[in-house]
Amino acid sequence: MSDLIKRVKAAKRERTMQMWRTFRANRAAYASLYVLAAMALMALIGAFYTPYDPYRIDLSAALGFFSLAHPLGTDWLGRDMLSRVMEGARYTLGISFAAVLLGAALGSALGLVSGYYGGLLDAIIQRATDVLLAFPTILLAIALTSVLGVGIVNVVLAAGIATVPIYIRLVRNLTLTLRNEPYVEAGRAMGLSGPYILFRHILPNLSYVIVVQSTYYMGITILIVSALGFLGLGVPKPIPEWGTMIGDARDYIFTYPHVVLVPGVFISAAALAFNLLGDGLRDALDPRMATLLRRA
Amino acid sequence: MTLLDVRGLTIHYDLPQGTVRAVEDATFTVDRGEVVAIIGESGSGKTTLAMAIAGLLRPPGRVVRGHIYFDGLDLSRLDDDKWREIRGRDITVVFQDPNTYLNPLMSVGRQVAEVFEAHGMGSIRSREVAERAIEILRRVRIQDPDKRYWSYPHELSGGMKQRVLIAMAIALKPKLLIADEPTSALDATIQAQILDLLEELRREMGMSLLLITHDLGVAARIAHRIIVMYAGQMVEVGRADEIMSDPLHPYTRALVRSVKLDRKRLLGVPSGAPPSLISPPPGCRFHPRCPYATEQCTTWRHTLYVRDNRRVACVLYA
């Protein structure tokens, strides 16, 4: 029987490889993976080592353009931009990731329960969602920070909660469809319990949608977190969160544009990479789609 | 020995347009090891009847009157927890369309293994449960069951998927297997294989089989007894061979004739469609389509007359 286990494991590996091949066929998504891996690495290194102290002021080197000593130039206080971007990556990417995680977990849980059990609970959750959806996501995030106050944890909460209603809608709608799938009926005929069906049959069938959606939302959340920083409602000033950096440097936008452009390019690249990655994941994670592509 | 005893079962659907009388006064038994086929057109109430027996009737459907006794247990009085125990273990269902009744994101082997887990026989991840599931897959004649264990539904043919669904249904050696149009979505050649498999498994495991079908040919192939339903009512009950050779009710006669494909006599098959079950015709529900209808058919009250070992609901046999 150990032979059987081996064959079973080989079959599983083959399945994973298949997904990987489908993913790689999408060049843009594959490239995005490298871009994001580089950014993650940068954030990781930034926590331990930066070429200069990102907070050290050196007015003699102020507003320098790209050079060997300062590859990405210096800002108006002479702080090294590369060091600041490396330091800030941890904040921008980390906060966005935590916010998406929070929004996806909270929103999916509420959406699942709301869609599967229905009734009064569903009505209450949906009316609350209606109210929240009436506000644009960014406005909702701004409103939340003004209630919660400035600070890293509050940015996570604000950006996370701002996306919750969208997840609730998405997951609830899918749950409503999946609830009536014949295989859910078959599950009931086999004597499976409600929570079992919810987590074993319904959640896995919409999990890839949640993953893909969350990847797209990483891009959007990076923009929200940066916007909050830019407006001075996000991560407070000396910390070089990318949006905060742009907001801080806006006086120099016409005279020394690189001070604004450097963090801007990083924000755009990260947001774009997450969007492209989402496209690739969507194709790779749907097994039915994978078969279609392989045949094509 | 009686396993299933249905008495006076009446099921209504309360819709905004009115009450649909889907099943009226169904009364029959299924013995241990017996194959009973319920046959009728779409909308005759046969699937509703089957779902009620499996406890899967959903609102707006509700049992208005009657009882279902299974193995001495009154099923109409069970709570949800007890139902969950019985479903999948004592009573199981094989559904019509194998393409949609399997979870597309779970390997077919695990879906079989899940039945064991749901009934407290170990985790789906344990090797023991996996081995039992593979054994069941082998039992429904799936080639290379250990390899197929990790196949996903979209990688299998319709006939294979139906075998997987049958595997799920027989995993815990049920006493009663309800097969709701098990072959309707399959090719003719596969149909015969699946029917033979069901019959073989029934004989091996001594379970009873309640076969729901619109195809008299399917019923005749493996059923011991046949129940003919029309517009929510039972119109004839009897041994399969007797019904096939000597149908009594005009509706049954028409059905049997249509199967025998006799072109000239096919002309005698009544045209038209089954009546609306919200406002069925008065008297015998078949009389608008019946070639033998007389005045008294419009006032007749549905009764099953006993004739030899047959029951038939037609005034001709009163």
Measured between the Cα atoms of the first and last residue of chain A, the distance is 37 Å
**Using DSSP, what is the number of strands of chain A?**
0
Give the overall shape of chain B: globular
CATH topology of chain A: MetI-like fold
- Report strand % of chain A: under 5%
Total domain units of chain A: 1
Overall pLDDT metric of chain B: 86
Which band does the percent of strand residues of chain B land in?
15-25%
**Which CATH C-level class of chain A is it?**
Mainly Alpha
Largest sheet strand order of chain B: 6-7-8-3-9-10-12-11
Give the C-alpha Rg of chain B.
Answer: 20 Å
Largest interface: A-B, 28 and 37 residues
- How much helicity do the residues of chain A have? over 70%
Structural class given helices, strands, pairing of chain B? alpha/beta
Q: Which oligomerization state do the chains in this entry correspond to?
A: heterodimer
Main beta sheet of chain B, described?
Answer: 8 strands, mixed
Rounded mean pLDDT of chain A is 88
- Second rung of CATH, namely the architecture of chain A: Orthogonal Bundle
Question: Poorly predicted ranges of chain B (pLDDT <50, ≥5 residues)?
Answer: none
General description of the model:
The complex is a heterodimer of chains A (296) and B (318). Chain A is mostly helical and 296 residues long. Chain A has helices at residues 2-25, 27-46, 81-117, 119-133, 137-148, 152-179, 182-189, 194-230, 242-248, 258-285, 287-295. Chain B is of the alpha/beta class and 318 residues long. Chain B has helices at residues 46-53, 80-86, 108-118, 127-139, 145-148, 158-170, 188-205, 216-222, 240-245, 250-260, 263-266, and strands at 2-15, 18-31, 35-39, 61-70, 73-74, 91-94, 176-180, 208-213, 225-230, 233-239, 305-307, 310-312. In chain B, helix 7 links the parallel strand 7 and strand 8. The chains are: A mainly alpha (296), B alpha/beta (318).
